[in-house]
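Lecture notes, structural biology module. Today: joint structure prediction for complexes of two components.
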Amino acid sequence: MFNTAVSLVQDHGIAEDIAQEVFITVYKSILSFNERSSMSTWIYRITVNKCLDHLRAQKRQKRTGIFSQLFHKDTGEEVRGVTTFEHPGIQLERKENARYLFEAINALPENQKTVFVLAHIEEIPQKEIAEILNLSVKAVESLLQRGKANLRKKLSAIYDRRKTE
Amino acid sequence: MTNNADKEKWIKEALDSTQGIVRASPSPDLFKKITVELASRQFAKTRPLPVKQWAAAAILLLALNVGSVMYFASRHTKISESATVNPIAGAMEAESTYNY
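The predicted structure, tokenised, for the full assembly:
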């Protein structure tokens, strides 16, 4: 649950808060859990929903203030447009490339990002992803293909940017 | 051409950079934080009324209802008794006045 959260929100502290909320939600609603899906699918669904809620709230917050996009709320430091997230589970020799990959993942549309993270980072089979997101397997397949195509485009732009830096 | 090939190679490497990824784990005190949070939320919950108090309240309510029914029933009997005596007395009085 923590691994999914950290890959989606790309922040260690926020991922811990989300993991805590997920645990409490599971504890409170365990009696209402119907066994139509497996327990892990149910927990993944709660985690993904909480992460997406957080990302939407973050997006709304960014839209409300012009300066909040340019300067950090607490420190007043300039906020860089590029994410510098490093997933703690990435092998050392791949860390730099992975940082650019996560930057590109972060720029994907919400549904493509979720499907890509679940498929390639969590390594969940497409059938289970479909159950988690209440989608058909075909829809998951299509989202994954579009996500990969978009990632290629974004990585290509990052490559060009790196060349000019 | 070489530039494009380099770019494609780099994109492939970036896409494959999650291979062999190890699951990220939270800080060791997260579980402790969760248990503390759960305990505080449970403490804040309202305590339901105990069964003994519910039973006492129900018995009291029943006793009050029975008492009030008995009171009204006895009052109704007294009123009906006086209502049957009074018309006779009136008639007797009227008759005696006429005869006198």
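Point to remember: The two ends of chain A are 37 Å apart (CA to CA).
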